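ligand=6-O-phosphono-beta-D-glucopyranose
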Amino acid sequence: MIKAFIFDLDGVLTDTAEYHYQAWKRLADELGIPFDRQRNEAMRGVSRRRSLELLLDGRPATEEQMEQWVERKNGYYVELLRQMPPDAILPGALELLSEVRQAGMAIGIASASKNTSLVLDRLGLWGYVDAVSDGYSVARPKPAPDLFLHCARQLNVQPAEAVVVEDAAAGVEAALAGGFWVVGLGPPERVAGAHAIFPSLEGVHLRDILQAFMTEVTVTSQVTITSTQEQRI
Ligand code: BG6
Ligand code: MG
């Protein structure tokens, strides 16, 4: 029985993934490092520090430089957040939040971002949220399951009773490792392994998600039967 939904924030409820890209791009240009949207894909759901390591791609840097650069990038990102309009919620997100609420389920936010509260402020989403786990909550970032487990504990639910909605490969991996039901948003190759995959939340209703999980259970059992039969042969 599903009792809660845990949403990732960046790229799921709002397109801050684009602002993260613009902020990294500005830093990359200043450092003379080639960077584009495709390379930014690898940074989805990844911590600020790890993102810088991906950007540097083996280029040497001192600890002090790295600290300065992540701070600078965050300054650029926060500048963009302050200009973000309050209606910058992705299509379908508000509708799904309302449906989950109406169905009596709890809602958590589990984001690697240390700017989670600021984003929730800007979007006026606090009224939908029962618990928040963010970049300050746990030591091990996604793909470790810790952030989602932290959020589930706050909501007082078991992983098998909760659905995680994610747009990042690292996030899907983390949620699966934690034993959650997983909805992946985006290209199937990015969110492979999720129990249900949609291009975005646009037009996706609670019943579509629950139905997709039921199909998943059926498909899984068929696969099991087939492989057992193959083994017998
Ligand atoms: C994740 C984003 O939600 O948060 C990543 O998908 C980002 O791109 C990470 O690096 C950390 O965010 P912040 O706001 O703490 O730099
Ligand atoms: Mg995300």
